[in-house]
Specification:
- The chain has six helices and no strands.
- It has 155 residues and is mainly α.
- It has one domain.
- The longest helix has 42 residues.
Amino acid sequence: MTELTAGGVLLAALWSFGASAFSAFYFNTGKTDILWGGLIGSAGWVLYTIVVVKTGSQAQGYLAGSFAVALCSELLAVFTHNPATVFLLPGLLPLVPGGGIFYMMRSAVQGNLSDALHNGYTTLIAAGAIALGIALASSAARIATLLRRHILKGK
């Protein structure tokens, strides 16, 4: 990913929407939740793509994408009165670094340990960035809820 084109972003948004929406369907969520899950997954992947192209860092892209997905999931959970995981799981599906794990195992089986270690390290960094993005968004939502309760209690 060295160049950012409108067609490439649109295609990435379409594929990630499909992956997220179909996984939401597979998880047997409601009809509107399927749409929201697809939109959140698409937004997270597009943000990941833009950040990677602009900064050159996949870790920053995973962090930004997972933070956006988790934050949108927390907000939608409040508005739809559903748990945040209804939107979080399908939304994170496009960001899961499954290809890195596959390439790590393939390199290890072929005996190329330096490539296996490199792929394993980058996959571990990606998984850590995703977990950090989710934790930050969840913490921000929890702090906002506590502040809202504190402010309403004061009135």
